[in-house]
Amino acid sequence: MQGPRVSNHLFYLSIPPNIFLDVVKCASKSASSVSGWTRVIVEKPFGRDSESSAALTKGLKQYLTEDQIFRIDHYLGKELVENLSVLRFSNLVFEPLWSRQYIRNVQLIFSEDFGTEGRGGYFDSYGIIRDIMQNHLLQILALFAMETPISLEAEDIRNEKVKVLRSMKPLRLEDVVIGQYKSHTKGGITYPGYTEDKTVPKGSLTPTFAAAALFINNARWDGVPFLMKAGKALHTKQAEIRVQFRHVPGNLYKGSFGTDLDRATNELVIRVQPDEGIYLKINNKIPGLGMRLDRSNLNLHYAARYPKEIPDAYERLLLDAIEGERRLFIRSDELDAAWELFTPLLKELEQKRMAPELYPYGSRGPVGAHYLAAKYNVRWGDLGGSEH
Question: Which residues form the Glucose-6-phosphate dehydrogenase NAD-binding domain (predicted)?
Answer without folding.
Answer: 7-83
